[in-house]
Amino acid sequence: MATDFAFPDSAAKTAQARPDIASQPTTEFETEKMSLSMGPSHPSTHGVLRLQLELDGEIVTKCDPVVGYLHRGDEKIAENMTYNQFVPYTDRLDYIAPLANNMAYAIAVEKLAKLEVPARCQAIRVLTAEMARVSSHLLGLGAFGIDTGAWTVFMYTFTEREKLYKLFEELTGARFTTSYSRIGGLQRDVPEGWTGRVNEFCDQFLPILEKILAMLTRNKIFTDRTVGIGVISKEDAVAYGLTGPNLRGSGIGVDLRKDKPYSGYEQYEFDVPVGTKGDSYDRYLVRGEEMRQSVRIIKQVIAKFPGGPWYATDAKKIFAPPKDKILTSMEELIQNFMLVTEGPQMPAGEVYFEAENPKGILGFYVVSKGGGVPWRLKIRSPSFCNLSILPKLCAGCLVSDVVAILGSLDFVMGECDR
Amino acid sequence: MAIIPLERKPLTLAERTYIPQILGGLKTTLARLLKPTETLEYPEQRPAIPSGYRGVPTLVRDPNGREKCVSCQLCEFVCPPKAIRITPGSIPVDAPTAHVEKAPQAFDIDMLRCIYCGLCQEVCPEEAIFLQAQYSMSGYTREEMVNHKDRLYELGGTLPDQHHKWDKKLAAEKHGNAH
Fold it and tell me: What is the pTM of this model?
């Protein structure tokens, strides 16, 4: 018996997602839906995301994201160690921008302790977070390019990213797993002449950025794959809790650096780019413009780089004393032992802090019963929330559109599964 | 200081033929041919390692050859992945450094667990453990990947000491005003 080819729901979805292909004539022969497992080791799922697709020919009728392949139980691990010991674990959330995670975590715990860090510490954190944003977007754009068939972009963005990683390596001692923040301060001060090298990087980076963007922005091959694909309406973007460039791509100018400034972001001038249509192309445009704005912020930070201490000198129960004091004075030696074994002393209470990370809003909810170990630490990860819209976005699309949509959402599974 | 909507201009007729992009791509490739490469031919060429790099953790000796670790086990405590195992030991009373009293009998770092975070170096009250410039390690067995005390000192070598804490203590003891 010949069944009706046009499934009522999928036809409507296709008409909505791909109006250009929806009007193609349907055939009369018998068809059957096919189930396709895309991932967890698929190059375009950027990590260990699995999409359980239901296909009608080449049209996706249903998309079920399966997450959790990279679950390590970070939130539980946090309950079993002191606040500073958890810093290396924050590197492994959004491992494309570890410095931004370090900063968000440190500010969350400092908010619990009602601790103000000095201006220099704040400036260094903003500087590193913006560099992390540039490096994250460079990878995001490069990978998006590969997903849509443009390999060259990736090569150029990776060359630039490598320069940033050299700077990170010099600052923190590691390229990737930076572990740079400490509660109440930083791991160490910036090295001599480092800010000058960051400035040099920015100067040579801007023309190259324009070159990279020129490869995609007016490229017909790229626009064919992205314009009008994966359109997220303003209402949907809000309803699904999207944040970051994915939300701004839909035309909503929410940026916590502007709306709820932290770590001294209010001193810097920058614009918040928003998209007009909410499609994959808009999300690409937003990331491109955000890199320009980040460079603007970096230059402003360096121009008025404050002096003074780089850690909270008055927080004796939170930040360790300087090393030469530990080696020579009994008082500081005991203080160091107490801090390491008992952890930075926090008051009882609970606090939620969210920061505008490259991927979106990263939130830490810390519940403390006093002492040096959190009682509960909840991580609100932007990638997880951003992926929640996939079932809605992918229904009615072609399989190749799914790849473009995934690339445009720019997620990281380390943070999604945490 | 504001929200800026990103405008998009429609592609021109020429751009819609794909031809400018193809020519542009060829131009990029040809221009690249003449430039030096950005890559490094590892392992023949090695990257420059900046000071303060967090490589393989090592134990160091002071300029007199004394092992600096006093086996306080603070690094063992702080290590997030629990990669360090220390068995404390005593220094024999007839040794020239007997006034230091303690030294590790065994000190093992499991490099399969180590995450190179540098917390051990940060908390060490004796400046005895350092993450130095070595970044590549390999072995055929799990046992091989555990660095024992001898190997750790071999990797660490001797670093300059600014404080000479224990020499000062010995001098004070001789003058009869030790704590």
Answer: 0.86
